[in-house]
C-alpha cells in the first residue's frame, strides 16, 4: 500500500536505503521446491553492480547477496525468502552538503514534501541502489519461468542519446548482449554509444536512452482483464524503475499512424498452430498474451546526478549553487538492462500464478 | 486479483459484458458526504457515448447511468456505490457469425485461450463498453478532486494518424476541447483530423492517434515509492484502456536525447514558493508529485474492428475470410478523451487517499 | 479496503442498503466453466429469507436473485459475476422516527461517528439484509467445492439461549437440519428451542444462540501460514456476520483445560492413510487443514431490535424512550445457518485458489 | 497473499524460520516522524523471550532486535522498516530425529502436505519464534497509539487450565500484570496458576488457558463494515497466533443466553458525552468502535510439544514412538501476553489508518 511491494501472488517487498544497514527484499508466495543458490542470484547481481566497467559509477559496491530465510537445503520451501546485501563502501560524508538542498530532478524535494523527513545520504530510499533487491527477486522468477515454462527474457540497449541500433530483435542472443559494456548486441552501434557515454562522463554530464525487451515463449492466456492487462502491468513495472519516462509495446507510438487494415495481426495456421502473420500487438491482445513474442521499449532519461554546476534552492528557500561530488553513472542504461529483465520476470511470474489460481 | 478492480483505497470494480444485462461498477472507499447526482455523472457519460457525432459509432446507446446504492439524500455515505447502465439497443444476432472465429487484434482468441469459454456477443467483457463504468466512477473522483483540492484534469486529442497539433498545453481550456467533435483544441488541426477520420470511415478502415493529458494543481507529495510511483500508476491506468499501446510522461521518448545538464529541472524561487524552472519531469520527481503541472501522452492504435475484408482462422483451425458488420468507430480518440480523464482522476484520487492515510 | 470485500482470489464485494435500490455482490476471480443457474442460488436464498416461518421476521421480502453478468449460456466465464436482489416491500416511513436517535447495540451511533452521515432506513448498510449477497456468492462457492472437491458444508443450530443439543456432529445430514424451522437436527432440542423463541417473540424480546459448522472432505494443505491460517480466516468470516460475538474451533475454550498429553491428536494409520486418532484440533494444524473434519462454533448474541421499551439518546444528546415498530426476528439463528454455510464456503474456496496458485 | 502479511495500510510481513539465519519483519506504511529506538522495542521483546523465568522454556535466546532500515536519526521516515533478530543458541541436531516423523498437533504433517517440503528444524516457519517479529512491529504501533491517541492496551492471563481469576478488568494496571511470572494481575490466582504450570512442567506435560485483553480510549469510528469489522479483524489477529483455538468479544459465548432487552447497551449521557450504560458489546457496535472499552478473550490450547511419550506416524507411514527432547514451555500463556498486546496494537493501528484515509 505504501508502494514497496510488487506483485499480487509473487509478492516482492523491498526495503533499505543506500546508506542504511542494507538493501534487500522479502519474496512471498514463491512456489516451493525451486532449486536456487546465492551464486545463481549473484550472477544477475553482478550485471547490475556499480564499478563493472569504465562507463559505470566507480563505486566499489560488491552487492553480495545473502539468503536468510525461505530456502532449505538448496530449495525454496514456499515460505518468505529474505535476501539482502549489507551496505559497504559507504561515504555518508559525501552527502552532508546535500542535507539542506534539493538536487534538480531528484527525489529530495518530493520526499521531504511527502514525509516531512528524508534520509539525505545518497538519495536514501530513492537511490537506484534499491533496484538490486529487484534483481535478486527477479533472478528467482527468471529461473522458474525458464525451467518450468521455457520462457526467455532478453533486454538490451537499443538507443543511447541520438544513437540508435538497427538490429533485428529476433536475432538477439544473451551472449551478444553481454559482448560489450553498453549491452547493445549491435556491435557497431555499441561502439558509438560507448564513445558518447565516455564523452558525457568526461564532461561531467549524463545521457539517456532506450532499452528494448523481448520475451519469448510466453504461453497464451496470461494477463487479466480489464485493469491488470499484461501490457498495463508490464508498463507499470517498467515505469517504476528510476529514471524511466516512457513505455511502448508492439507498434507503440508509431503504430497509431497505421490504418487498422494494415495494423491488424491476421490469424494464420502455422505448423499446426494458430499464429499471427504480423505482431504489431507485441504479443498481447485484449491485455492477454497471445503466444507470440512479447516486445516493448522503455525510455530512460539522462541521469539527474551530474558533476556540472547547477542552480537550486535550499530548504530555507535560499538560491544555491550545486556541484555533485558523489560517484555516479554517466548513463544508467547498461546497468538498467538486468533491472528491466528482472521487472519483466516478476510481472510474468505474477501473472502466471494469477492465471493458475483461477484457470488451470 | 482477477483484474477487474482499480485502485487501492478508492477502489473501482467494474462488471458487465457489452450484450449482457448491464455494465457498471462498484466504487468502494469513497469518502462520505460528497454531493453527487446522476445528472453530474451523466454529463461525463455523454462525452463517451456512441452516436454523439458523425465520426463515432452510429450505435444508439444512451448509457443512462443509475446509482443504486451508497448515495443517500444526494450525498455519498462512505458505503459502496453501485452504478450501472442497463444494456439496450443490443443486436446479439450481429455477432452470431463471430461465434467460432477469431477477429484479428481482438481479444477473441486470447480470452478463449485463457478461460476456455467466451461471451462472443460484441466482444463480451473485452468490449470498450466496459469503459463507461470507468467514466462513471471517474466522475465522482473528478468532482472530489476539483472541489476539495482544486485539481483540474484536461485531456485532448493531440494527434490523429500523422496529423499533429501544435497547441501549447498550458493554454488549453475545457471549452476549447469541447468546441469540435474530434476534441482537439487546435481548431486548424482539428479540421484536418476530422477529414482524416471521415476518410477512414468511408473506406471502412480505422486510424489511431495520441491523447495528451494535463493535470493542474496536484499538491506536492502524491505518489508512493518505489513500485507505486505516481507516473507508474498513471502509466498502468492508461495502458489498461483498450487499444492503448504506449505512454510517456514529461519529456518522454525525446527526453532521452537531452543531456542531464539541460534536462534537469532546476529549482527556483517564484512568488515565494519553491518551483522548477523547467518541467521536463512532467510534474513527478522520484515517483512523487512535485507540485508542477503533470502532463503525459497516451497512444491509441487504430481500432481493430474494420469493415474491410480480413483473413483469419476459426476455432476449428480453418482459414476464413471475415467482414465486420457491427457499428463501430473509425477512430476512438474523441470518445477516449473522457476515459483518459476518468483514469487520471481515479489514479490521483487513490494516491491522495493513500497519502492521507500515512502522512496527513 | 473499506471492508466490503471478502477473499483474496475468490473476491466477493457486497453493496446495497436495506432500503436503497438493491442489495447484491460482485464475485470476481470465479473460475470459468462452472455451471450455475439463478434457481440453484435461489434455493440458498430461500433458506435465509425473512417470512419463511412463524419464528422469523414477518417481512415479505422475496429476495429474488438476478445474475446480470459473468454467466453466459449457463456457465461462468471467469469475468465478474454481478448478482443482486432489488428491494421491495420497503416501508421507509417505518424508520422516520429513528432518524435522530441511536438504537441500543445497533450500528446507528457508530456509523454516524465514523462517516458523519448514515442511511437510517432499516439500518441502511448495517442491515442484516446485506447477508443475502453473501449467501448468493456462497452458493457458487459451495457448488464448486462440492462438485470439484467433494467438500460438504453443514451448519446447524446447536444452542438457543440456555437450550443446548446433544447431537453428535458426524451423524448430522442436511435433511435433518431442514426438518424443522429452527434448523437444529436434534428434534427434541429443536422443539424446546422453538418454544423459547416463540416466547421471546410474544414478549417482544429476543434471544441468541450457537451455530455449529461441520466441513467434511477438505483436503490437507489448505490455509496459509502465518497470519492467514485457515482457522483465523474462518474465524474472521464468522465474526463478520452481524451479531456474532465469538468463535471457537476444535476443542475451543474447553480444550484449554486439557493437558497436552491428552489434547494432542496422535497420528495413526487408517485404511492406508495417515489420520489422527482424535480431532481436538478441529481439522486444522498449524493453520493448515489436516484432512480431518473441520468443525467450529459461532455464537450469536440476541437480536438488538426488540419491541420492548428501551432508553436511549438522540443526536441532540437528549435522553429518549424508544419502541421498535419494524418487523424483526426474535432469534436470528435459523436464518443465520445458510449465512454460516456461505461464509465457510467462501473461506474454503478462497484458500483453495490460494493454495492452487502457489502449490499445485 | 501467502499469509505472511498482516494489515492493509500498516503492513507487517514476517519472515524467518526458527533455525535459519534470522526471524524478523518488514513494516510498511508506518507514518513518518515517529521517534523509536531499538531499546524501546527490546523492552517488549524481553517480555516474550524464552528463559525469562522458571516456568518458561530454558532456551537462552536473547532475541536482540536490530533495526536495519526505515529509521533515520531516531525517527521513522515513512519507508519500510526492517527489523530482525539473528538466530543464536541453535541446536539443529536436536531436531534430526524429527526429520521423518510428524509430531502430534504440530504443523509438521500439514506443511509437508501443503508444500511437499519442510524445514524440520525446530518447527521451521511454524515455530512460535515467528511471533517475535510481531512483537517488534507491535511495539511501534503501540507507541504511536499511546502517544498520538492515548490508547492503552493491557492483556493478562485470566485462566490457566481450570484455574480462573476473579479480577475486575477495569482495575488492572500494567504493573500488576508484570508483578508475577504468569502475568495474572490477581495475585492469589497467579500463585495457583504458577503451581499448576510447575506441576505440568515436572510431569513433562503442558497446559492451556485464557488471555483477556482490554483496550482503553479507542475513539469511536474505527472498524470497517461489513467484512472487516473491528471485532472480526481482532478475532483474526488473535486466531493467527500459534495455539489459539477461540476468541470472544464482549459478552461472548455467555451473552447468547441473555435476552436482548437485558443484553442491549442503552445509550446514556455521562459527563456531557454519549456513552452506554452497560458494555456487553465489548466496545464494538456494528463492527465499529463505540468509544467504550474494548475487551475480549483469547483461548490457547496446551502446548503440543511435551516430554511424555506419544505415538505417531513417520513419512514412510510407519507407526513410531516419540519423545520430545527440545527445550519447551509447559504453558505459553505468560509469553503470549505481549503477543496478544502486539496483535491488538497492529489491528487498531491498521484500522486507524484505514479510517483516516477515508474519513478524516
Please explain how this structure is put together.
The structure is a homotetramer of 360-residue chains. Chain A has 360 residues and is of the alpha+beta class. Chain A has one domain (5-359): 4-Layer Sandwich (Chorismate synthase, AroC fold). Helix content of chain A is 29%, strand content 23%. Chain A is built from nine helices and 19 strands. The first copy, chain A, has helices spanning 38-48, 108-115, 131-149, 174-177, 187-203, 230-239, 252-255, 260-263, 333-359; strands spanning 5-6, 11-15, 22-28, 66-69, 71-72, 75-76, 81-86, 101-102, 152-160, 163-164, 209-216, 244-249, 267-270, 273-276, 284-285, 288-289, 294-300, 310-314, 319-322. A five-stranded antiparallel β-sheet of chain A has the order 1-2-3-7-4, with helices on one face. In chain A, a hairpin with a 2-residue loop joins strand 5 and strand 6. Chain A is globular and about 65 Å long. The two termini of chain A are 29 Å apart. Chains in contact: A-B, A-C, A-D, B-C, B-D, C-D. The interface between C and D is large, with 113 and 113 residues. Strand 12 of chain A pairs antiparallel with strand 12 of chain B, so a sheet runs across the interface.
